[in-house]
Amino acid sequence: MISVGLTGGIASGKSTVAALFENLGVPIIYADKISREVVALGTDGLRKVQSLFGNEVLDPSGELNRSALRAIVFANPKKRQQLESLLHPLIRSRSDELEKLAEDSGAPYLVFEIPLLLETHRYEDMDRVLVIDVHEKTQINRVMRRDNCSEAQAREILAVQSSRAERLAIATDVISNEGDEHELKSAVDELHKVYLELATA
Q1: Which of 25, 76, 84, 93 shows its CA 20 to 30 Å from the CA of 103?
Q2: Which residues of the chain have a pLDDT value below 50?
Q3: Alpha helices (H) in 105-180, listed in sequence order
């Protein structure tokens, strides 16, 4: 089974592309979804986050207050490293379980949708790396529209991510998402054929 790491900068359209692959029957492992699962109410992950950061990262119902946690780790790189050291092994373990299920299902290939594919070095485990690429200006406009924020805030978000050049440097496949939905779907359909051929080669 071939593994494809799917990534791209913020607002590049990663989730849209992942959904298009999913519509073609391809199993997708969503890193962000797993990262929410491992800190859901009642999990060992949430207890560990609470003991590390205190009750201020919980909301009144006892669930994780993501914006409070984000504010802490965004302001303190050391705290962010601590959080990553705590969560990444939990995320990896769950990801491995889902990969095994996909393999057992007989799927020819599997897509891992991982925003931090480069930063976490997970791309090194992949047979292919698919980067969804857009110009920085497009990203900024989309982030401003989506998050209802200023250009300065959007640039701040972009600044903490890997650069476009760094992502493209690890890519084996690139989809440009500057066009419309029809163009995006066509690009995914073409790559689907390529991956199926590689999987059966």
Answers
A1: 84
A2: none
A3: 136-147, 151-159, 164-169
Closest among 121, 132, 163 to 11, alpha carbons compared: 132
d(CA 32, CA 41): 16
CA distance 178 to 132: 10
3 state DSSP class of 9: coil
Neighbours of 77 (CB within 10 A): 10
**Residue at 45: amino acid letter:** G
pLDDT, tens digit (0-9, with 9 covering 90-100), for 134-175: 999 999 999 999 989 999 989 988 887 889 999 999 999 999
What's the full length of the chain, in residues? 201
The owner of tokens 């050391």 is: 78
